[in-house]
Amino acid sequence: MFSCNRIVLNYVIVMYDKSRSKVKIVQDIAEELPVPPVVSYFFCDSWYTCRGIMDAFIKKRFYTIGVLKTNWVLYLCGIRQKACEFALHLRKTDAAVSLVTSGS
Questions:
Q1: Residue 12 near residue 29, CB atoms below 8 Å
Q2: pLDDT tens, 52-91?
Q3: Are the C-beta atoms of 51 and 41 separated by less than 8 Å?
Q4: Which residues are CB-neighbours of 44 under 8 A, at least 6 positions away?
Q5: pLDDT tens per residue, range 4-17
Q6: Residue 43 contacts residue 57 (beta carbons within 8 Å)
Q7: Per-position b or e across 17-51, b if 16+ CB within 10 A of its CB
Q8: Which of 14, 79, 81, 101 has its CB surrounded by the most CB atoms within 10 Å?
Q9: 44, 67 contact by CB (below 8 A)
């Protein structure tokens, strides 16, 4: 645990083991975390924005904030749709939407 100005961060350094997938390594890390006492987030890049990892963190009550590339294909309610097409239906004013962008 790392704490600074009453902000507590979990951290771990794991040597990469090619016998296990990166997703499995991160899922194992999530399983070892204690349930946070306050609303907490897992920040990740596009390598780790996948259902298996998000499910592992939500079980520990961590929300995921990660990169979603516009060329990805999503299956929302079983319907295949490109992320860029789905994004056209999102509005910043929607109560359930929190859009975060990086760069342009």
A1: yes
A2: 999 999 999 999 888 888 888 988 888 999 988 988 888 8
A3: no
A4: 26, 53, 64, 65, 66, 67
A5: 777 777 677 788 88
A6: no
A7: eeeeeeeebbbebbeebeeeeeebebebeeebbbe
A8: 81
A9: yes
User: ∠ CA 6-11-12 to the nearest 5 degrees?
Assistant: 160
The first and second tokens of residue 1, run together, are: 């645990």
Residue closest to 85 by CA, chosen among 101, 69, 66, 70: 70
Q: 8 is written with which tokens?
A: 């507590």
8-state DSSP, 47 = G
Give me the residue label for tokens 């390594």. 25
Query: Which whole-number Å values give the CA distances from 53 to 13, 45, 60, 92, in the listed order?
Result: 17, 12, 11, 26
- Rounded Cα–Cα distance for residues 91 and 45 (Å): 23
Counting every residue written for the chain, the total comes to 104
Question: Which amino acid is located at 85 in the chain?
Answer: E
Instruction: Read off the amino acid at residue 7.
Output: I
